[in-house]
Amino acid sequence: MISKHRIEMPTQPAELRIKNFDEVELGFTEEQAIAEAQRCIQCKKPKCVEGCPVNVKIPEFIKLITERKFDEAAKKIKETNSLPAICGRVCPQETQCEAKCVLGIKGEPVSIGRLERFAADNETTETIPIIRKKNKKVAVVGAGPAGLTAAGELAKFGYDVDVFEALHEPGGVLVYGIPEFRLPKKIVQKECDYIRKLGVNIKCNYVIGKIFTIDDLLKNGYEAVFMGNGAGLPNFLNIPGENLVGVYSANEFLTRVNLMKSYLFGKYDTPVAISDTVAVIGGGNVAMDACRCAKRLGAKNVYCLYRRTRKEMPARAEEIKHAEEEKIEFRFLVNPIKIYGDENGRVSKIECVQMELGEPDASGRRRPIVIPNSNFTIDAGTVIIAIGQSANPIAVENQRDIKTNKWGYIEVNEQTGATSKPGVYAGGDIVTGAATVILAMGAGLIAAKSIDEYLTKK
Ligand SMILES: Cc1cc2nc3c(=O)[nH]c(=O)nc-3n(C[C@H](O)[C@H](O)[C@H](O)COP(=O)(O)OP(=O)(O)OC[C@H]3O[C@@H](n4cnc5c(N)ncnc54)[C@H](O)[C@@H]3O)c2cc1C
Question: Which residue, among 153, 131, 159, has the nearest Cα to 458 in the 3D structure?
Fold first, then answer.
């Protein structure tokens, strides 16, 4: 019988998972996946496809799952999405494809993301398309979801693609930001390997803007460049005490823990200092990841300080639920104004003010307003600031002909991804500001098509 309700996905119990970095969600079994796939009513005009920024052929791949054709289901997804195991784990489906599912009007939408993950994880034979080479070279800056997607698509069009990545591993936020327990590194590795199998050459430890400028690339045989260099510059609160020992930006904290494996300190060289009480400031996915990593590193109390309420939190609903299950303590309507240190310059406490919500601001969310004389302190030995990221200027700082806006994000034609410099395209967080994996991938896809049109005409 076809279930009215979504099939639950097994997860590690909270009391167990806070002691390890293994994946929290364990994925569907074959029977669970088939039962969930059978809930899809195969709409003639599927709205879910419109809701996906890369237009995955959702009903078609779901039908293949019902027929137990798992390899073919994965192949169908990969027609428009080269990173399905990643998207199946971290995409905010609840506001995209699943938000458009007709079953969601009166009941529960199909778990499209979980089925995507299942298809990708259960692919046994990868199909690599046969590619006719064009003998033209394209450079891609950054190996995050935008760069990897653009590179994969350009390779499928027949270009020789070199990706220049600043860090020692490809993946961007997928490896340095999102923790192992949400997105295992081996999954990212596997999908990066698929991009390599399409013929893409990923060159790590190349900081564009320092080792080569964009002009250098264009003068040295690359006929076009895609910039997918992300928004990796952490924002700070600019309050007294932010330079004390024990205060981290979430970027630094998560990079140490995840990419540089400080959770295995001893086996790996990167240390991370964690105290019994940790305060994480912010309410987005990054803050949830920082809270949950701190818990796993042994902190007894992890406070999440957020200046609005739970309703306005930008983090995915699922991440907030998981954090609550893991006993992260949320303090809403709280804003830090000063961080205090002890005689050794180490963080000891944070002074905060209580907030209330006023009228909606430009973001549509109600503006937090300080309640006068509401100051109080919270003891904390580690403070992690997770209040957003900005554009990193390095790639374009010597490149005046690539126009940026007042925040440093690259200006592009939205339909094509073209920047103000002929032959140079951009997409992902470096254009939109911090957004999502799938939006970055969508931008990579659009730019790859535009680069192909540009080079075909050229
Ligand atoms: C902790 C965290 C958790 C998140 N969780 C989610 C989630 O659950 N779901 C979701 O959809 N989104 C999530 N996001 C947002 C999402 O990861 C980003 O929107 C997405 O990764 C943007 O992709 P991108 O390719 O534009 O940039 P990035 O992923 O930032 O990749 C940019 C790459 O460019 C490289 N680079 C930068 N400058 C240079 C240079 N000068 N030369 C060479 N290389 C350079 C960087 O090292 C990096 O590898 C999260 C973000 C963070 C920080």
Answer: 159
CATH superfamily label, 14-121: Alpha-helical ferredoxin (1.10.1060.10)
* Residue of 81, 173, 293, 446 to mutate, ligand 1, most atoms within 8 A of C-beta: 173
d(CA 102, CA 47) in angstroms, rounded, equals 8
Index of the ligand 1 atom closest to the CA of residue 392: 38
Q: Do the domains at 14-121 and 137-232+391-457 have one common CATH topology? A: no
The first and second tokens of residue 108, run together, are 């529960």
pLDDT at 134: 93
Q: How far does CA 149 lie from the centroid of its chain?
A: 14
Judge if pTM exceeds 0.85.
yes
> For ligand 1, which residues put their CB under 6 angstroms from it?
90-92, 141-147, 164-167, 172-173, 177-178, 206-209, 228-230, 232, 254, 285-286, 289, 316, 392, 394-395, 428-430, 434-438, 440
pLDDT tens for each residue of 210-231: 999 999 999 999 999 999 999 9
Task: Output the CA torsion sign for 109, 112, 114, 119.
Answer: positive
Pairing outcome for strands 334-341 and 347-360: antiparallel
Strand partners for 198: none
Distances (CA, A) of 82 to 33, 98, 128, 157, 384: 21, 20, 11, 14, 33
Alpha helices, H only, 284-401:
285-296, 317-325
133, 158 contact by CB (below 8 A):
yes
Domains of the chain, by residue range, sit at 14-121, 137-232+391-457, 234-388
Q: What is the pLDDT of residues 348-370, one digit of tens each?
A: 999 999 999 998 888 788 899 99
Which CATH architecture group holds 234-388?
Answer: 3-Layer(bba) Sandwich (3.50)
Give the fold, CATH level 3, of 137-232+391-457: FAD/NAD(P)-binding domain (3.50.50)
> CA-CA distance, 229 to 432, in Å (whole number)?
12
3-state percent helix, strand, coil for the chain, nearest multiple of 5: 35, 20, 45
How much of the chain exceeds pLDDT 70, in percent? 100
> Is the separation of the CB atoms in 189 and 122 below 8 Å?
no
